[in-house]
Recover the amino acids of this structure.
């Protein structure tokens, strides 16, 4: 089929590449010309394991092309997939201006007789009806169009695997014919498909993210209590997760969730509920717990060194999770901002995202992709992203290269016995401090 994907971010690019790989003819359109030029040359604008090879091979097979020209993008595709960003507005609601821009482009540049418009961007319930209205307002050429809500569930860092081997595909539509065309489109993937109405499809995405965020904040609160009562969160998580009704996933305590989805989608769902006069107390608490979680780690550090001023502090991990260069809403930024305010000398390490946050800071923060450089002569270190490079960094090296080996591990990367034997002072989440130490500032 002839498909245009609007937006070449994490979702649009991965979707476009996947559809080309399974045999469709895909045009990826983006308003960012620089991104498009790079993509035409086979260069991915995002770090996502496995994506570069798929871009190059599908460009070579002439099944994939990139454009910033609206005529080329919208004139004759049978399907347009909307995968543009829906960032958060100041009040927490979703900004739909990019989605509206695509709807307007479709009506202005489309020349086809029939078209299926698929919304993959995460949009509040009711948005597809808005898209319908935006299109109908301007439609002049009599194109018959149908809408399909098809929310995306990929995770950055494993987006290619998730797209080819997802748990489910949700297809929400008022048109049986359009729904069956989209089912056919994805059929080579052999992923279970659930057909719903449009509103339920839109809600499934928000409810899924809200549920996962709730699991994370729940286990983090249990971890915070474990620290105070002398329990070990890892044993507690294992014990909970062995219950089939609960399962072991999303029960790893830490400094909280970040990224471009959970923070904004939880806030948007609170707003959405508020719009229909429902106060979503549970989700509001989930958000509050998450906002607090990095601050609790900092608080632990403050109790050990009563001032950060002038001290070299290493921050290990900038990306919001491993295997991505995405730093949106990353816990590292909360930690770095606070340390920066308190005039620490911060050296932040990340194997991939080290340059992305550089422009956010005028002074006092340095970025490196060399973990040893970050740690050498540091007074203390925060572990914020559980990259393999961090987990595999030999624990004895902290003693060897830091001025004082004091570690605040927000991802529980190290075994407590090994930490004890190595001699480092080690504070983690939901576990007892190892070799605790008070030093004078
Ligand atoms: N990133 C994820 O892990 C993930 C997972 C599931 C769902 N989502 C949702 O998918 C949507 C896209 O997310 P993302 O992370 O890929 O965003 P992104 O910010 O990485 O990319 C969005 C892209 O859209 C482009 N764009 C903006 N306006 C455009 C327009 N009018 N026409 C064409 N391109 C335009 C931007 O230039 C950018 O390249 C969001 O609604 C997000 O919530 C994201």
């Amino acid at each position: 089929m002839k498909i245009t994907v609007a937006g070449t971010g994490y979702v649009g690019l991965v979707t476009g590449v996947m559809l080309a790989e399974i045999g469709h003819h895909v045009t990826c359109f983006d308003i960012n010309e620089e991104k498009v030029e790079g993509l035409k040359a086979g260069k991915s604008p995002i770090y996502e394991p496995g994506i570069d090879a798929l871009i190059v091979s599908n460009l070579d097979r002439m099944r994939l092309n990139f454009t910033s020209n609206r005529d080329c993008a919208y004139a004759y595709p049978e399907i347009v997939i909307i995968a543009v960003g829906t960032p958060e507005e100041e009040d927490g609601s979703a900004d739909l201006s990019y989605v509206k821009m695509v709807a307007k482009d479709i009506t202005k540049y489309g020349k086809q007789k029939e078209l299926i418009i698929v919304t993959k961007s995460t949009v509040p319930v009711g948005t597809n009806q808005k898209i319908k209205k935006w299109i109908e307002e301007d439609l002049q050429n009599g194109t018959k169009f149908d809408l399909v809500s098809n929310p995306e569930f990929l995770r950055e860092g494993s987006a290619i695997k998730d797209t080819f081997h997802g748990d489910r595909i949700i297809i929400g539509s008022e048109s049986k014919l359009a729904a069956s065309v989209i089912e056919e489109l994805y059929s080579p993937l052999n992923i279970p498909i659930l057909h719903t109405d449009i509103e339920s499809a839109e809600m499934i995405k928000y409810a899924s993210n809200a549920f996962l965020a709730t699991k994370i904040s729940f286990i983090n609160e249990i971890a915070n209590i474990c620290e105070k009562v002398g329990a070990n969160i890892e044993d507690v998580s294992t014990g909970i997760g062995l219950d089939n009704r609960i399962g072991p996933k999303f029960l790893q305590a830490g400094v909280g969730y970040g990224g471009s989805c959970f923070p904004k989608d939880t806030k948007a769902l609170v707003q959405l509920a508020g719009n229909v006069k429902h106060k979503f107390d549970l989700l509001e608490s989930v958000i509050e717990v998450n906002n607090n979680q990095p601050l609790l780690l900092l608080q632990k550090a403050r109790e050990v060194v009563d001032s950060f001023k002038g001290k070299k502090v290493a921050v290990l991990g900038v990306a919001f999770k491993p295997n991505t260069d995405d730093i949106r809403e990353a816990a590292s930024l909360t930690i770095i901002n606070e340390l920066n305010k308190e005039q620490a000398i911060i050296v932040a390490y990340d194997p991939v995202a080290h340059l992305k946050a550089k422009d956010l800071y005028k002074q006092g923060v340095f970025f490196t992709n060399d973990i040893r450089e970050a740690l050498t002569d540091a007074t203390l270190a925060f572990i914020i992203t559980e990259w393999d490079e961090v987990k595999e960094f030999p624990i004895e090296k902290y003693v060897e290269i830091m001025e004082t080996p004091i570690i605040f591990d927000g991802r529980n990367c190290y075994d407590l016995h090994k930490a004890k034997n190595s001699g480092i002072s080690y504070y983690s989440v939901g576990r007892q401090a190892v070799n605790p130490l008070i030093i004078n500032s």
Remarks:
- The chain has 17 helices and 14 strands.
- The mean pLDDT is 96.
- Residues 6-12, 29-32, 35, 83-86, 98, 101-102, 121-122, 152, 154, 156, 260-261 surround nicotinamide-adenine-dinucleotide (CB under 6 Å).
